[in-house]
Amino acid sequence: MDGRGHITLEILLGVFDMQVMNVLWRPMSGDFFESGLRVWSDDTDAPRFLPLPSGYEVAWTIHGPKRCIGSVDSNGVPIRCPENSLVRRGMRRCGPCSAMDEMDPCIRCDGRDCNASDSRKEWCLSTEYAVYLAVFNDNTLKIGVSSKSRVVTRWVEQGADFGGIIGVVQGGLKARQIERRLGTSPDVKKQVRAERKAMHLLKPIGVEIAQDIAQGFLNSVKEIEIESEVRLQDLSNHYNIDSLNAEPQRWRTGRTSIEGLQMMGQVVGMKGSLLVTRIDSAFTVANLSELIGYELDDTSDVRVVSQTGLLDFI
User: Fold this and answer.
1) What is the DSSP letter of 96?
2) What residues contact 34, with CB distance under 8 A and at least 6 apart?
């Protein structure tokens, strides 16, 4: 990436049938991010990064069945599932890989008990954590926790429109306790679903409204370990969807099987796990998290019948 934030595309020569491991936003120099997919490929035991910058041409066929994405060791290194096990819908890991995964207990932590390994627990206790609030363009507010060093990355991964740190504490267990107490407020959403985010892509929220939502929440709580005021950070410049000028169609409805579906078009941009593509003036939005565990084949013929966009007639 150059100083203006232009992305240099990493070309995965000869790679096909890539299994999707997760959606990834990689911090780059100059407060820029590179977004795409982390994938397993047949020619290596280390995951690869498949960048999806604006202008990239997507032509994928999705193959199943859904399989385990592996685990993460104590150093944060991904380990491929040795059995390539099948997993049920809604799951990402098989039983053995879930038991081996060092991050899983931390993701599930609510501040009551620590079930992490000794090495992970030691790292957690010595790390500064940010308790944050994130505001989304459907006017919802979410409370979360991240290590302070990657809090902006966490906001962008979620596709938040604004984010702000409301407290910094030592140790993840304490941070989770604060998060749990704040999460009991009726003003807080535990999760903002991708469908809601997709519905509001063309309905940006202004900073004044976002600030009012955040401050109204802070005024309503009596948590001594958080700030009474917060200055929100606008995250819109990270998403590259400024050219979106028509309502995108959903790539897949909840009842449609993923196996055998095809995705085609030119990338407009990403917001969190949402990928916006276009064919002519017709836009499509897909939640890339739905592809985790499935394989992408970029070598087969892809034929997509798209809805003609209204702008084609203007």
Assistant:
1) H
2) 1, 7, 25, 26, 28, 49, 51, 53
